[in-house]
């Protein structure tokens, strides 16, 4: 199903808050755990106890240093999985139809039984969101936990992606980004949610909330300085202030 | 073509078993999904008070730990030389016979046994075992971990951060974090930070390194290591000077108004004025008369002066104000040393004051204080603090932690809405804790619990001849308030036979020949050193581990433990429970799967050994054992009548009850049914002001946390410290040795001070070298985990940009890193968001070749490294003929973070240096491919 | 990008094979019988061998048939369909030439067109990828086409045309390098757009894991600049200069063989560079290009 649907009923995706992510990798490992045991082939590891361990992961956390024009350098932890793009180039390049975007919710999936493991979809993805599994020989990618979010064997509150459920800091949000009233859409609107590599024209569904401005405490001196007006210059003065203050209590 | 039909509701598992995670010491609740009787997937338990459903990277990787090829498979007897890793698998019968054969004879001379445990969570049990064995030589790992933090908190306010309490995450508006990369409260801190961020509340991170929590902090104070105390006291100075302190709070709830003897000639100089009942007294502002601090209706005066029997007494507050108003602490005078601009210090103080006082709020909740006064509301001061090893693991850490507590108390933000809150069984003042015990009786138990909080020289663990009673020299003049013992000194002292020789070193869950020790190579030498007869200097070593760690190779007998999913454990109110500020809670682990190897839960093995030796406390009158195994102990042991290891589902005449009650044979099943934990909520009226809140005190007594209400006031001024000073000044009959007199006089100041950590012999070594916990790794355990080791399989040394230029380094280069003690050669990487004079690396990623069932050329061994090689347990010689410990002079806490180094570019070696010979793996090696899926 | 031998062999051989088929379909050279058989065998050998090589890197070659289904959107699928169509048509045409000594001209033209289109489709597999700015250029199809047709002419013994076409291919190659070297910069993708972090200069700090992964192995192949310059010169010389010189000299079978071999080797070298030098934008996330 290599052609993209004209329209999807929903655009399910993630909103990731870069102001909150502490880079703990919890989402990385819960994703590995869930997707090893569930949808499709397990996420395998080569040389897991050797000199060059390499495994398949669907979600990885980068970190970047940003040096503003003034002030100290900052560090940003940056989780990244499939962005479930509206114009997903990974889908249209697929020769077998294994890659597809679901019409009902916009989730981009690989139908593993059709995948020949040619790797072209991974070439077409600007974000590095697809990884070929070396044991299964098929392309693996974030499924947006399609086997959780509708799963009636799970309690209602657990019908969300494994990574979202596990994120200790609450930096990951899941919802329908095509619905402007959804909590995720509102977060995006409030916090200036952004696209990654917009110039690639992929129209990602997932959005990132930028870090809030930092290291500003010195800047509001005018507001804060009066708070530190000394009560007295001398120590004797301090104790007589103290007496007066105690009177008032 | 149509899109494929997908089953979006596949079955998730056959069954969910709920227990407690032990991929670290945070103790989150987990749902273990089982398929075909095997562990299929682990997720957080949403109902659990600690993690509320979330799980960290380690927790989610539990399945890979549980299946790790490094798991020990059977008891091991050493057959090659120590340190070779050559073992023979033996039966449990043989192993227990050997252990009993070694241990039982030592009961006649119990100090010949040293029993030390690591980060296990059964210290109330292991200490009970050691006490009944009779040895004075027991402690857990706290002395090298964070005793400064714990002890400073207990002495100052009856509890510290960390397991003792937490910020009021739902209400705090300004959160200041000192020296934390991860901490034990791993998930709760992240959940809390998430709450703050969701509200847009402000976070200030004080840390030389800006990663993790500090990366998301709105303000980063990239402090010079070891100078926090100065910075904090400068904040105190600034706040005092502008009168931005909570006088009402100080007068009511702290010892600020307590009167102190000011006569330098008096034997009570610096001690509190007390009434006949021994209670510290204050001046009552209303009556103008002296009164016990807790007398109903009293209005303590912060500014009183009182002459009594010819001696002038002033208030603690007076002393405190005099000290910190001094210009010595003015921002301008500390800025350079701290590496923080004076203006920034001021503005941070201003922001603290603004939020604490201008954003104060009232909670509509009545409560009654310990003086009987009824309050209509609870006043919130939405500023909170948290700190951990960054300030604790320095040789000035105790006083720095004290300074931080004094700061938050001055702001009136402890145990108030929006501030810092204790978790039961805390708050608990020093008086409610035991003192140390060390009196040995051959073939009898020790005279009391080993560890405690000395109130003065009388409580030191000294023999009659004044020599140390304990092998680790805890509670001696060298570190009088070493409340957690000094595990990091055990091996070197035992090797030196100082203060005496031991026979058997028995250790549990501590990788003492590798990452948890200082002077790693030296320790390996001590463990393998032989005397003139060719016998090992430390004659016998018994060790319990669950995995093929580096330490295994250095023991003579290995008692293999199960994994955390295969045994009973008890996270007990007698120990370090899982309580939250709103509730008491405890938890268990239980075998959600049975071991598939010949291993046994170590606690049950201890019960077995106790039974074989018929230890008191484990043996009935008729000589029969009291407990069959650990599960039996958990259910049936009573520490005091009605008080057992678990507080939930006890029995009284009406049936099930909580807290106090008789043992209930179904207790473990009750826990399992409830998800592995129990929670007892604190009533609304008792939620805040716990040390002074009658409702809380009554609730705590009801639950059995203590037997009578014990309200107390915070100790800005710590009198026990003053008692040690008095001794150093020549008072009393227990006197410190001459060479320690000055140090005790100086360092045991009852009001927080800051001092430069000992830099003698460090000339030329000018760069601070630190480690941080990686969030996705737990010390050495993480490495055996196929998933986690891909995240952190090696560790570079992170070097600030300017230092990189200076040393002509670029990413991927190698450098020699040298301290006065040693040299290592390691890969480097540039980092800008870092204090300009600090280098750092992730802790405990480096591994010994051959350990953990990894290939010998694993990156952990070839490109990973430990800073520990550079850190010595003793400071460089000063020329006074003595070697001073690299520890806090008050508590003996290992000063990991005082390390100073220099770096210089190196030719890339084949592997990180030192490159020690490989250990023989007692468990073989892991498979070449993993595609783990237990369901079809 | 990782220069996988399978794709280098595939594009090199099948390009040449289809190039030769294209010429054969046009009746150049107008051979029949055993001579034709040899020409066709070489052409089919190259084209089919290349296609076979391309399946080596598949995770599931046994499902290769599925790759013919998505010709409406996928260039890889189109390439498969066109290649098979070209091979089938040319097989029939070749049968006529070899065994019946008849040239079904129209069929030949169709086969020839299909062969060229197969090469074009191959080139579009790369040229369509916005993620690899160095490939995402009109010069990419031009490069593949000029190589295939030039190489085909050489193989087909069309000396004059081949001389000109090889010179053209050389020029296209040089142009491709010049334009390609600026492509990543010109694409507008930077670490700043990749991360959306725009409040300062962004630098990749710790990677998500200390080991490697599929993505890094596949996409983050880095050739040193000095290395690549040397290889460019060698590649260009082998692929165009040497063959052209050989062709300009009086004809001999030895020289022709040298020209063909040199060309083949040259194409392999520049193809290696085609992959090895191509920067995938995802490398930005890892601080590599
Ligand atoms: N350079 C440097 N060194 C440090 C520190 C630092 O900050 N910097 N920090 C120090 C601190 S605070 C600490 S607490 C120590 C930690 O040091 P350790 O407590 O020694 O830490 P681990 O490496 O986790 O070692 C614990 C051992 O327990 C074993 N183990 C794991 N699970 C089980 C189990 O279920 N049963 C049994 N019986 N054994 C088990 C592991 O295999 C391992 O061998 O390190 C200290 N070392
Ligand atoms: N994931 C994970 N969690 C763990 C552990 C683990 O190994 N892995 N270990 C557990 C154990 S045993 C412990 S003790 C706790 C420790 O938890 P933390 O206290 O978070 O310990 P560290 O990671 O050693 O972090 C110390 C921090 O202090 C900073 N620091 C160092 N010197 C100074 C200083 O002078 N001033 C300031 N302000 N900061 C300074 C360092 O940069 C670092 O960020 O974590 C526990 N939790
Ligand atoms: S779990 Fe949450 S905080 Fe941790 S790395 Fe992932 S997004 Fe960031
Ligand atoms: S992120 Fe990559 S894999 Fe996911 S839809 Fe977009 S292009 Fe496809
Ligand atoms: S690897 Fe599989 S999913 Fe990706 S393009 Fe090839 S066939 Fe399609
Ligand atoms: S949504 Fe599911 S598959 Fe996607 S990153 Fe999160 S856990 Fe992994
Ligand atoms: S913080 Fe992580 S490793 Fe520690 S107990 Fe919780 S889930 Fe387990
Ligand atoms: Mo620790």
Largest interface: A-B, 96 and 115 residues
Mean pLDDT across every amino acid position of chain A? 96
CATH class of one domain in chain B: Alpha Beta
Structural class of chain A: alpha+beta
**Beta fraction of the residues of chain B?**
15-25%
CATH topology of one domain in chain B: Dimethylsulfoxide Reductase, domain 2
Uncertain regions of chain B: pLDDT < 50 for 5+ in a row?
none
How much helix, percentage-wise, in residues of chain B?
Answer: 10-25%
Approximate shape of chain A:
elongated
- Compute the gyration radius of chain A: what is it? 25 Å
Quick check: average pLDDT of chain B? Answer: 96
Instruction: Work out the radius of gyration of chain B.
Output: 27 Å
Termini separation of chain A comes to: 76 Å
Oligomerization: heterotrimer
Read across the widest sheet of chain B, the strand sequence of neighbours is 5-4-25-24-23-6-7
Question: What is the strand tally of chain A?
Answer: 11
Can you describe what's shown?
The complex is a heterotrimer of chains A (249), B (936) and C (289). With 249 residues, chain A is an alpha+beta fold. Chain A is built from eight helices and eleven strands. In chain A, the strands form five sheets. A three-stranded mixed beta sheet of chain A has the order 10-1-11, with helices on one face. The relative contact order of chain A is 0.21. The mean pLDDT of chain A is 96. Chain B has 936 residues and is an alpha/beta fold. In chain B, helix 4 runs parallel beside helix 18 (602-613), helix 9 (228-241) crosses helix 13 and helix 12 crosses helix 13 (342-358). Chain B is globular. Chain C has one domain (5-285): Formate dehydrogenase/DMSO reductase domain (Formate dehydrogenase/DMSO reductase fold, Up-down Bundle), CATH 1.20.1630. In chain C, helix 1 crosses helix 5 (139-155). The radius of gyration of chain C is 20 Å and the shape is globular. At the A-B interface, helix 1, strand 2, strand 3, strand 4 and strand 5 of A face strand 3, helix 1, helix 7, helix 8 and helix 9 of B. Molybdenum atom binds at residues 145-146 of chain B.
């Amino acid at each position: 199903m290599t052609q993209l649907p004209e329209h999807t009923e929903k655009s399910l995706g993630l909103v990731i808050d870069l102001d909150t992510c502490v880079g703990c990798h919890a989402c990385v490992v819960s994703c590995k755990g869930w997707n090893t045991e569930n949808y499709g082939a397990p996420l395998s590891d080569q040389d897991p106890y050797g000199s060059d361990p390499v495994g398949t992961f669907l979600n990885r956390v980068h970190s970047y240093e940003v040096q503003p024009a003034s002030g100290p350098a900052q560090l940003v932890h940056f989780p990244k999985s499939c962005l479930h793009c509206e114009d997903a180039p990974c889908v249209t390049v697929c020769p077998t139809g294994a890659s597809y975007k679901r019409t009902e919710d916009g989730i981009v999936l690989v139908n593993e039984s059709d995948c020949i493991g040619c790797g072209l979809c991974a070439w077409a993805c600007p974000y590095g969101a697809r990884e070929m599994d070396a044991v299964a020989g098929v392309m693996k990618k974030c499924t947006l936990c399609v086997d959780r979010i509708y799963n009636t064997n799970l309690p209602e509150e657990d019908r969300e992606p494994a990574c979202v459920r596990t994120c200790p800091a609450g930096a990951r949000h899941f919802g329908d980004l095509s619905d402007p009233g959804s909590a995720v859409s509102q977060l995006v609107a409030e916090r200036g949610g952004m696209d990654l590599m917009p110039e690639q024209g992929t129209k990602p569904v997932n959005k990132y909330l930028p870090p809030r401005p930092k290291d500003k405490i010195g800047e509001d001196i005018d507001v804060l300085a009066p708070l530190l007006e000394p009560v007295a210059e001398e120590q004797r003065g301090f104790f007589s202030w103290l007496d007066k203050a105690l009177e008032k209590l | 073509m149509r899109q494929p039909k997908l089953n979006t509701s596949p079955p998730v598992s056959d069954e969910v078993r709920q227990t407690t995670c032990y991929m670290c010491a945070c103790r989150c609740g987990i749902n273990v999904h089982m398929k075909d009787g095997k562990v299929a997937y682990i997720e957080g338990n949403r109902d659990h008070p600690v993690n509320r459903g979330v799980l960290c990277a380690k927790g989610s990787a539990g399945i890979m730990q549980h299946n790790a090829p490094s798991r020990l498979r059977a008891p091991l007897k050493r057959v090659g030389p120590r340190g070779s890793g050559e073992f023979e698998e033996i039966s449990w019968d043989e192993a227990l016979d050997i252990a009993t054969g070694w241990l039982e004879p030592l009961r006649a001379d119990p100090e010949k046994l040293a029993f030390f445990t690591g980060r296990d969570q059964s210290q109330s049990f292991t200490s009970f075992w050691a006490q009944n064995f009779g040895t004075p030589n027991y402690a857990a790992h706290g002395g090298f971990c964070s005793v400064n933090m714990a002890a400073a908190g207990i002495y100052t306010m009856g509890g510290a951060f960390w397991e003792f309490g937490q910020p009021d995450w739902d209400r705090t508006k300004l959160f200041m974090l000192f020296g934390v990369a991860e901490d034990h409260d791993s998930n709760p801190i992240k959940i809390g930070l998430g709450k703050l961020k969701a509200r847009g509340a402000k976070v200030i991170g004080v840390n030389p390194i800006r990663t993790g929590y500090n990366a998301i902090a709105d303000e980063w104070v990239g402090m010079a290591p070891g100078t926090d105390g100065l910075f904090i006291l400068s904040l105190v100075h600034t706040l005092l000077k502008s009168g931005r302190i909570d006088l009402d709070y100080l007068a009511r709830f702290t010892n600020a108004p307590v009167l102190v003897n000011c006569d330098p000639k008096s034997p009570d100089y610096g001690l509190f004025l007390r009434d006949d009942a021994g209670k510290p007294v204050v001046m009552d502002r209303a009556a103008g008369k002296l009164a016990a601090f807790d007398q109903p209706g009293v209005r303590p005066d912060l500014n009183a002066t009182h002459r009594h029997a010819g001696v002038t007494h002033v208030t603690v507050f007076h002393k405190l104000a005099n000290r910190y108003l001094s210009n010595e602490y003015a921002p301008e005078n500390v800025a350079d040393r701290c590496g923080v601009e004076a203006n920034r210090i001021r503005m941070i103080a201003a922001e603290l004051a603004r939020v604490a006082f201008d954003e104060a709020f009232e909670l509509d909740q009545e409560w009654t204080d310990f003086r009987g006064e009824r309050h209509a509301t609870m006043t919130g001061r939405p500023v909170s603090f948290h700190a951990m090893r960054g300030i604790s693991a320095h040789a000035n850490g105790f006083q720095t932690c004290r300074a931080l507590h004094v700061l938050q108390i001055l702001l009136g933000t402890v145990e108030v809405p929006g501030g810092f809150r204790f978790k039961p069984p805390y708050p608990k003042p020093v008086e409610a804790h035991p003192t140390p015990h060390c009196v040995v009786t051959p073939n009898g138990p020790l005279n009391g619990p080993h560890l405690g909080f000395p109130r003065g020289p009388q409580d030191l663990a000294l023999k009659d001849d004044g020599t140390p009673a304990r092998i680790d020299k805890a509670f001696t003049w060298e570190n009088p308030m070493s409340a957690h013992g000094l595990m990091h000194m055990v091996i070197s002292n035992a090797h030196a036979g100082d203060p005496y020789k031991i026979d058997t070193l028995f250790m549990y869950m501590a990788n003492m020949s590798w990452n948890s020790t200082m002077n790693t190579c030296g320790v390996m030498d001590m463990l393998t050193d032989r005397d003139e007869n060719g016998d090992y200097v430390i004659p016998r070593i018994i060790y319990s581990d669950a995995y093929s760690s580096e330490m295994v190779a250095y023991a003579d007998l290995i008692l293999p433990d199960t994994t955390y999913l295969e045994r009973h454990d008890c996270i007990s109110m007698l120990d370090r429970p899982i309580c939250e500020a709103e509730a008491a809670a405890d938890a268990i682990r239980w075998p959600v799967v049975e071991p598939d190897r010949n291993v046994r839960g170590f606690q049950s093995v201890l019960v077995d050994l106790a039974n074989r030796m018929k230890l008191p406390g484990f043996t009935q009158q008729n000589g029969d054992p009291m407990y069959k195994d650990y599960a039996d102990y958990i259910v049936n042991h009573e520490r005091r009548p009605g008080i057992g290891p678990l507080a939930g589902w006890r029995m009284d005449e009406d049936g099930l009850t909580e807290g106090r009650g008789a043992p209930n044979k179904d207790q473990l099943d009750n826990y399992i049914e409830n998800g592995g934990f129990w929670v007892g909520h604190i009533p609304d009226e008792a939620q805040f002001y716990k040390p002074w809140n009658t409702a809380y005190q009554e609730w705590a007594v009801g639950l059995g946390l203590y037997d009578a209400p014990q309200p107390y006031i915070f100790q800005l001024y710590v009198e026990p410290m003053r008692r040690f000073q008095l001794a150093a000044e020549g008072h009393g009959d227990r006197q410190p040795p001459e060479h320690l007199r000055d140090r005790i006089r100086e360092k045991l100041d009852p009001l927080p001070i800051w001092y430069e950590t000992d830099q003698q012999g460090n000339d030329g070594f000018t760069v601070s070298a630190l480690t941080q916990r990686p969030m996705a790794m737990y010390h050495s355990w993480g490495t055996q985990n196929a998933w986690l080791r891909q995240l952190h399989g090696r560790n570079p040394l992170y070097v600030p940009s300017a230092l990189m230029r200076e040393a002509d380094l670029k990413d991927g280069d190698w450098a020699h890193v040298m301290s006065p003690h040693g040299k290592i050669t390691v890969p480097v990487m540039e980092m800008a968001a870092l204090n300009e004079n600090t280098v750092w690396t992730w802790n405990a990623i480096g591994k010994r070749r051959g350990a953990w069932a990894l290939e010998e050329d694993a990156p952990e061994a070839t490109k990973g490294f430990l800073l520990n090689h550079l850190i010595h347990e003793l400071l460089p010689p000063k020329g006074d003929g003595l070697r001073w410990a690299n520890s806090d002079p008050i508590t003996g806490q290992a000063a990991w973070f005082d390390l100073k180094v220099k770096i210089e570019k190196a030719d890339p070696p084949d592997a990180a240096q030192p490159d020690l010979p490989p250990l023989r793996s007692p468990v073989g090696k892991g498979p070449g491919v993993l595609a783990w899926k237990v369901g079809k | 990008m990782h220069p996988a031998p399978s794709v280098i062999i595939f594009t090199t051989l099948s390009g040449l094979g289809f190039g030769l088929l294209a010429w054969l379909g046009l009746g150049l050279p107008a051979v029949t019988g055993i001579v034709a058989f040899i020409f066709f065998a070489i052409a089919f050998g190259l084209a089919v061998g290349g296609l076979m090589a391309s399946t080596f890197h598949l995770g599931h070659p046994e499902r290769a048939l599925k790759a013919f289904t998505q010709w409406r959107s996928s260039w890889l699928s189109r390439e498969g369909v066109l290649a098979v169509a070209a091979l089938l048509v040319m097989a029939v045409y070749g049968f006529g030439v070899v065994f019946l000594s008849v040239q079904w001209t129209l069929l030949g033209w169709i086969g020839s067109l299909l062969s060229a289109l197969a090469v074009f489709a191959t080139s579009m597999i790369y040229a369509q990828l916005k993620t690899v700015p160095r490939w995402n250029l009109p010069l990419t199809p031009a490069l593949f086409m000029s190589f295939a047709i030039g190489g085909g002419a050489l193989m087909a013994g069309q000396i004059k045309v081949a001389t000109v076409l090889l010179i053209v291919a050389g020029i296209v190659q040089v142009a491709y390098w010049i334009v390609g070297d600026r492509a990543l910069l010109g694409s507008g993708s930077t670490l700043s757009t990749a991360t959306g972090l725009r409040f300062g200069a962004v630098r990749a700090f710790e990677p998500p894991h200390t080991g490697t992964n599929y993505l890094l192995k596949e996409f983050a192949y880095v050739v040193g600049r000095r290395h690549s310059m040397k290889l460019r010169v060698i590649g260009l010389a082998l692929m165009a200069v040497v063959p052209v010189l050989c062709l300009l000299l009086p004809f001999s079978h030895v020289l022709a063989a040298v020209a063909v071999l040199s060309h083949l080797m040259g194409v392999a070298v520049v193809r290696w560079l085609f992959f090895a030098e191509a920067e995938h934008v995802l490398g930005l996330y890892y601080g590599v290009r």
